[in-house]
Amino acid sequence: MAEPRIGVYPGTFDPITLGHLDIIRRGTRVVDHLIVAIAGNDGKNPLFSLEDRLAMVEGDIGGIEDTGTRIEVRPFDGLLVSFAQEVGAGLILRGLRAVSDFEYEFQMVGMNSRLAPALETVFLMAADNCQFISSRFVKEICRLGGDISQFVTPAVAQKLKARLKGA
After folding, report:
1. For residues 127 and 51, what is the distance between their CA atoms, to the nearest angstrom?
2. Contact, 54 vs 39, CB < 8 A?
3. Less Cβ crowding at N or C end of the chain, within 10 Å?
4. pLDDT tens-digit series, residues 117-131
């Protein structure tokens, strides 16, 4: 029996969006075990704590249909390639929305391939209904009182509204 293909889908997930969930759902077709790796990223000043982001992602992935792929949510700090090697992953899964994403990701792949040559990066294009969704825009729309129901799950929308109301 072949060894399971392990992939890591990294991000800040502040908060998780329907775009992230689309990539996770489609990523289950590529690997046998998908680790959604949530970066501490204190330098980005996330709105939600690491613990809150972990809970939101765990709650949202519960709605993904069972494809036989194991989905695990884990925090990480430090180099992504080090984390991927630590968990035995052979690939990093990334989503692309626009050309601007490609430029950044292209540079990251170059650096990561120098640090960990055996680690592959697989890109999934965002679904057409998710190409414009970003956590940053969702937070801004919510902050300004807009309707975010088409960008995040109801549970995340509720948490985001509560957090921004107190901000």
Report:
1. 28
2. no
3. N
4. 999 999 999 898 988
- Edge-to-edge strand order for the sheet containing 6-11? 70-76, 33-39, 6-11, 91-96, 120-125
What does R_g of the chain's alpha carbons equal in angstroms?
Answer: 16
Mean pLDDT of 65-90: 94
N- to C-terminal Cα separation, the chain: 53
- Catalytic residue IDs: 20, 44, 97, 135
- pLDDT at 31 (0 to 100): 96
Asked whether 58 and 35 are in contact (CB, 8 A), the reply is no
CA distance 8 to 84: 7
Q: What domains can be seen in the chain, in order of their start residue?
A: 6-131 (3.40.50.620)
Q: Which two tokens stand for residue 18?
A: 């329907």
Task: Judge contact between 111 and 81, C-beta under 8 A.
Answer: no
Cis peptide bond prior to 10, omega within 30° of 0: no
